[in-house]
Write the structure tokens for this entry.
Amino acid sequence: MATIAQAELYRLINEAVERGERVVVASVADTRGSTPQRRGAKMLFFENGDVAGTVGGGCIEAEVWAEAREALRTGTPALHKFSLTADEASEEGMVCGGTMEIFIDVWKPENSFQF
């Protein structure tokens, strides 16, 4: 999955909230060490199960997806810390070994905006 351009990100969010759907925006807030993405990378999670963008790949995105589902359910944003220690990385076949903080925000239909 590829990174997403800012204009595309906001277009997709706007279309979803206009349809009355919540959208979760996961943003890499901070990184330390070797990580698959850098600060600012974003991934969108839609109520219908679609996704766009990337915050890393593999096990990180699986963990972020679990947190995104919870955010869709509760409507509550939160900052999450994910560790990619060298031991975990080697077990999963990854080349990373750092930590990532990812802010998970929920865009609701009442937060809609127009370009």
The chain has one domain: 6-111. The radius of gyration is 14 Å. The chain has a mean pLDDT of 85.
